[in-house]
Amino acid sequence: MEKLTDPVVVDVMNQTRWDQTTGRNYVRASQTDRYHIAINCYEPGVNDEMHCHPGSDHTFFVVEGECTMKFLKGGEAKLKQHQGVHVPAGYFYQLNNTAEGRLVLYQVSTESNPRPKITKVLYGIDTSLKEHILDPVEGR
Fold first, then answer.
1. Rounded to 10 degrees, what is the CA torsion of 97, 121, 107, 76?
2. CATH class of 22-132
3. Which of 53, 66, 77, 140 ranks highest by number of CB atoms within 10 Å?
């Protein structure tokens, strides 16, 4: 990682990508030894796995679209454009694009020091609870 010595402009709409066949795209826009900024892009109806990040807080802000977050401990949060959420380190969550259009999330995540061996834990795969993988959020 290079040391950040000058301001870095992050242009979310010009840095988004839509080329992954999974319908999920991740662009790391900036990074230091303390945090990183990323852009998460989801096609309609696409979700990621239930997961957590040991040692790293994550904050998401909806730039475009609508995001339904499902939490392992129960409940969900529906985020609309210009709303955000802070997810503490080690907390299991799942991101879901529940809108008809594309979802663009601006993400800021802390970098832990020392860095854990596993930075992303997939529930049911990296845990011993494989029989209980949560289903994605149903549509609107």
1. 40
2. mainly beta
3. 53
Phi and psi, residue 73, nearest 5°? -75, 0
Task: List, for residues 94-124, the tens digit of each pLDDT value.
Answer: 999 999 999 999 999 999 888 888 888 898 8
d(C-alpha 31, C-alpha 138), whole Å = 34
Q: What is the three-class DSSP state of 77?
A: strand
Edge-first strand listing for the sheet containing 24-31: 24-31, 35-42, 103-110, 58-64, 84-87
State pTM to two decimals: 0.84
Task: Identify whether 54 is preceded by a cis peptide bond (ω within 30 of 0).
Answer: no
Q: Which helix (H) or strand (E) holds 14?
A: helix 12-15
Q: Which residues contact 40 (CB under 8 A, 6 or more apart)?
A: 24, 25, 26, 60, 95, 103, 104, 105, 107
The three-state secondary structure class of 132 is: helix
Q: For the chain, give every domain's residue range.
A: 22-132
